[in-house]
Amino acid sequence: MACGSKFDSGNCVADILREIADAQTDLVSDCTTSCEQSISDLLGDTSPSANNLDTVPVILYCKGDCKPFKGYGVPVEDLGDAFGSFYFRVKSVDEDNCAVLELLREDDDHEDDPCSPAKQDTSHLEVTGVCITVDLDCFCHITCLPAINALD
Question: Which keywords does UniProt give here (predicted)?
């Protein structure tokens, strides 16, 4: 049985990320996933006025150890300054269950390598322009956080 209403690849995490990517890109979706509230908030289904929300931050959990996945990247403009993040904005998911994820972090965050996803207030997360490609078959769980405005 599929986790998402639109996709049935056999990979629950991939299906949910595909739904989020579609919602963020098109801002139109019919969702019945475990991330329904975040996607509904993103689409403005919970209030009649425009909400300026553009991102559903997600945390992914690796198969086996079931620990939160921390991605690392280097901003193009500063090649010596790598950082890690537990928070991602899904950019795309292909038919082979590979996803492009953008690392999210607080703009004024001086801690370049957070130790836990619980240490950050996600309402202040912003896009970084740093993307990684992951194999979604390596993940067993996804947590969707409340939709935010990360692009401004």
Answer: Capsid protein, Virion
